[in-house]
């Protein structure tokens, strides 16, 4: 085999050479034996080696819903619980959500949480812990939440305050300045189609790189009051008229899974849902007994978003059930009335009341979609589901230390030294 000396001259490691030899024999010379003998190693099926099974791990996906009656607080509280479990089980007091996920997708308030948890700070670590991100959402809910009650003038004024808040929080950070792949949707009225802010696209060209404070404005822009928000990419070439990401994909779980399965550059060995670990965080559905059924634009938008989230959840759940794997967790709640919380003494719903309700939701059992059987109440509480998932994330994190091949291969943005950002490959 003339190729062998050439490979050695380039310093290719032994595993790479063996893989090359297998592929060359099988596809060029008709080699059909399903097993090979690696020097001083057990026999490994060719197809197993080709696919990377037992050599790579599972891609870990975090998805965060947009609209819901808790305005992002249920998802924020779930993330705070998850991060606390990760710190406890791993023994790392500084563990962050971003350390244990490969991809995050978030719409609306979920997009804001994704930005807070995955944007790189000055020290190179994520800007916010999960607790800090939750407090940010609670403290600034009146500024950033389109569902918070107020007159039109006050809500337009609130939009201006939200822009200042995001600009102050993220500064000049862009999509390139995230520690892991980020997907945040909005709806682009100029093309009448969903637009997905993507770190992977931003690293390819400035035409898809946007400032993080503008991304947060776009994914949370209330179309019933302020209309579309115009923004341009860093190089001014891409222009969009953005409205709330919930209009496009209130539950971005399916978008995140599709992104991973179709992105062989970054996730080369991920072939199906059996290669995924997914947690999807909802923000609560309206109490049917107290929902205002007046056919206003805002109410219809919320109802549509909740319905879409349920459909996506059921489809994803069916896919995992069909594949025979139990690596998908959904945290959601229906029928909770925030005005019943003892911490809420006002006629309107405040952030502390929603935080109280979020804590109660985590103590309750949820329903799950099952293949050909509709939905059923599961035995574990939402909090217990998060604790179990934290264990799965830690197991995956540790097992990667012994994997032969990388689970993900994506680009990391180098520190900014000029208007251009240089990227380098990084494997995990």
TrEMBL record:
* Organism the protein comes from: Protea cynaroides
> Any idea what job this protein has?
Lipolytic acyl hydrolase (LAH).
The EC number on file is 3.1.1.-
Q: Which residues form the PNPLA domain?
A: 62-257
| Similarity-based family | Belongs to the patatin family.
- This protein is called what? Patatin
Report TM segments. Answer: none
Q: Which UniProt keywords apply?
A: Hydrolase, Lipid degradation, Lipid metabolism
- Which InterPro entries does the annotation name? Acyl_Trfase/lysoPLipase, PNPLA_dom
Q: Where is this motif: DGA/G?
A: 244-246
A GO molecular-function descriptor: hydrolase activity
Its GO biological process terms?
lipid catabolic process
Q: Record's domain comment?
A: The nitrogen atoms of the two glycine residues in the GGXR motif define the oxyanion hole, and stabilize the oxyanion that forms during the nucleophilic attack by the catalytic serine during substrate cleavage.
Query: What is the top-level taxon of the source organism?
Result: Eukaryota
- EC class, as a word, reads hydrolase
rRNA-binding among keywords: no
């Amino acid at each position: 085999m003339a190729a062998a000396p050439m490979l050695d001259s380039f310093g290719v490691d032994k595993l790479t050479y063996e893989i090359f030899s297998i592929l060359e024999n099988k596809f060029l010379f008709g080699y059909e034996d399903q097993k090979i003998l690696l020097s001083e190693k057990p026999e490994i099926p060719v197809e197993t080696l080709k696919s990377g099974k037992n050599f790579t791990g599972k891609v870990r996906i975090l998805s965060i819903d947009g609209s819901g009656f808790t305005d992002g607080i249920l998802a924020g509280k779930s993330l705070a619980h998850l991060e606390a479990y990760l710190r406890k089980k791993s023994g790392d007091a500084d563990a962050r959500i971003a350390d244990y996920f490969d991809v995050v997708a978030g719409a609306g308030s979920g997009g804001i949480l994704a930005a807070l948890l995955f944007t790189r700070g000055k020290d190179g670590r994520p800007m916010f812990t999960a607790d800090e991100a939750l407090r940010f959402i609670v403290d600034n809910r009146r500024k950033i939440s389109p569902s918070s009650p107020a007159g039109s003038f006050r809500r337009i004024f609130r939009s201006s305050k939200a822009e200042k808040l995001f600009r102050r929080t993220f500064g000049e950070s862009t999509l390139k300045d995230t520690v892991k792949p980020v997907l945040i949707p909005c709806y682009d009225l100029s093309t009448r189609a969903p637009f997905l802010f993507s770190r992977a696209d931003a690293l390819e060209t400035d035409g898809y790189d946007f400032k993080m404070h503008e991304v947060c404005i776009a994914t949370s822009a209330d179309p019933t009051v302020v209309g579309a928000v115009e923004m341009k990419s860093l190089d001014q070439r891409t222009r969009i008229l953005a409205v709330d990401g919930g209009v496009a994909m209130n539950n971005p779980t399916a978008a995140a899974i599709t992104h991973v399965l179709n992105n062989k550059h970054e996730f080369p060995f991920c072939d199906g849902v059996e290669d995924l670990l997914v947690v999807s965080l909802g923000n609560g559905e309206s109490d049917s007994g107290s929902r205002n059924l007046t056919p206003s634009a805002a109410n219809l938008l919320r109802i549509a978003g909740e319905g879409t989230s349920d459909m996506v959840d059921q489809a994803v759940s069916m896919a995992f059930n069909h594949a025979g794997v139990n690596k998908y967790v959904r945290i959601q709640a229906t029928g909770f009335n925030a005005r019943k919380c003892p911490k809420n003494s006002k006629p309107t719903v405040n952030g502390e009341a929603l935080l109280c309700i979020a804590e109660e939701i985590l103590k309750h059992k949820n329903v799950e979609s099952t293949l050909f059987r509709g939905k059923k109440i599961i035995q574990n509480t939402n909090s217990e589901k998060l604790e179990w998932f934290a264990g799965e994330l830690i197991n995956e994190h540790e097992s990667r230390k012994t994997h032969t091949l990388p689970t993900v291969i994506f680009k990391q943005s180098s520190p900014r030294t000029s208007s251009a950002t240089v990227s380098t490959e990084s494997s995990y």
